[in-house]
Amino acid sequence: MSSSISVDSTAPSPKLVLDEFIAKALSSTPAELHPFFEAFDDLYTRKLWHQLTLKLFEFFDHPLSKPFRVVVFQQFVRDFGSKMNQQRLVELGTKVSKEIDNPQTQLTFLTSLLSRIDADISKEAYVLLLANIAQAKLVYGDLEGTKKDMDTAWKTLDQLEGVDNAVNASYYRVAADYYKAKAEYAPYYKHSLLYLACVDVATDLTPEERLLRAHDLGISAFLGDTIYNFGELLMHPILDALDNTQYDWIKKLLFTFNEGNIGKFEALAPLFPQEPILEQSYPFLRQKICLMALIESVFKRNANDRTMSFQTIAEETRLALDEVEHLIMKALSLKLIRGTLDQVDQKAHITWVQPRVLSRGQIGELNTRLGAWIERLSGVEQRVAPEVSATA
C-alpha cells in the first residue's frame, strides 16, 4: 500500500474491491496495524458503520498509521462515507488532511470532501469542514478566500442551537487567526476568547500553543482600541502559560492596566522594546492607561461621590491639568463613562461607568463597599425604628 496519493477533486473515487484493498494493506503495512484492517474487513462486510467509524478513529490515532492515513481515507473511507455520521466523517477527513504537506493539495482534498456534504441536512458537519477549509486557505495566504468561507460558515452557525463544541471551536479558531493576520486586535481578542471557551485548554492545546495564545491575547488587549476591561482574560487559566517565561512581564502589565496603575505602567515601560509593536504604540498605550486610571477612579467612588474636579483627575491620571478635558471627552466618546463637563468650574460629573468583568481584587473592594453600605443602612434603620414605633 503506497503512502503517497494524488488528490483529484474532479475524479470519482475508485470502486472499492474490499478483498483486494485488505490484501494489499496486510502485505504493505506493519504487523501492528493488521488487526485494524482485519476489523475493517469484518465490520464493512457486516455493514456496522458506527462500529467501523470508531475503529477508524482508533486506527488514525495510532502512530504507525501516519504514512497510510490519506490513502486509507481516499480508497476505503470515501466508499461508504455517505453511510457514516457526517460530522464524524468530516472529523476524520480534517484529521487526515493534516498529513498532506502541500497546502494546495490539502485544500483540494478538503474541498473534494465538502462536495460530498449536504449543507442543508448536515449543517454542523458543513460548518466544521468549511471552517477547516478557511484555515487551510489562511495558511496558503488566501485572506480573501478565508474571509468568504468564514462568512458562509457563520451564516449557518448563527442559526444553529446546541452546537457541538468542536464545531464552534473550529470557527472561532480560524476567525481569531484571520484577524491576527489582519492585525485587527479587538476582533482577534473577542474570537480568541470564544475559541478558548470551546476547548479544554489543558488537554486540547500544547504548551507551545498555550504560550503563543496567551501572548497574542495580551498584545491584542493592549492594542485593541475598544478593549478597556481585561477582567475576562485575567481570570482565564490561559494566562498561567506566561508564568516563568520570557513573557511573564506581559501578565504583570495586563494586571497593571486593569488596575489603572500608572506607576506600575511606567515601571514596566522599559521592557517594551522586547515587543517592538508595544514600543511603537507607546503614545496610545499611555493614553489607554490614563483612561483606565480614570475608569478605575470612578468605579471606586460611591455613586453619590462622582463629581470630580479636573485637578483630582489630573493627579490620579498623572496628566497635565490642560490635558484632562481631552481625556474625559475621549472617555465619553468611547462610551466608557457617561456624564457632563463643567468647563467653567473645571469639574466632571460622572453618572455611569461601563459595566466590567471584575478581577478578584476588584470584587473584594466591591464587597467592602457593599458591607459599608449595609452598615449605613442598618444605622438608618436603627434611628428610624423608634420614630416609626412612636407613631404606630
From TrEMBL:
<dbReference type="InterPro" id="IPR035298">
    <property type="entry name" value="PSMD13"/>
</dbReference>
<protein>
    <recommendedName>
        <fullName>PCI domain-containing protein</fullName>
    </recommendedName>
</protein>
<dbReference type="Pfam" id="PF01399">
    <property type="entry name" value="PCI"/>
</dbReference>
<feature type="domain" description="PCI">
    <location>
        <begin position="187"/>
        <end position="355"/>
    </location>
</feature>
<dbReference type="InterPro" id="IPR000717">
    <property type="entry name" value="PCI_dom"/>
</dbReference>
<dbReference type="GO" id="GO:0005198">
    <property type="term" value="F:structural molecule activity"/>
</dbReference>
<dbReference type="GO" id="GO:0005829">
    <property type="term" value="C:cytosol"/>
</dbReference>
<dbReference type="GO" id="GO:0006511">
    <property type="term" value="P:ubiquitin-dependent protein catabolic process"/>
</dbReference>
<dbReference type="GO" id="GO:0008541">
    <property type="term" value="C:proteasome regulatory particle, lid subcomplex"/>
</dbReference>
<keyword id="KW-0647">Proteasome</keyword>
<dbReference type="Pfam" id="PF22037">
    <property type="entry name" value="PSD13_N"/>
</dbReference>
<dbReference type="InterPro" id="IPR036390">
    <property type="entry name" value="WH_DNA-bd_sf"/>
</dbReference>
<dbReference type="GO" id="GO:0005634">
    <property type="term" value="C:nucleus"/>
</dbReference>
<dbReference type="InterPro" id="IPR054179">
    <property type="entry name" value="PSD13_N"/>
</dbReference>
<comment type="similarity">
    <text>Belongs to the proteasome subunit S11 family.</text>
</comment>
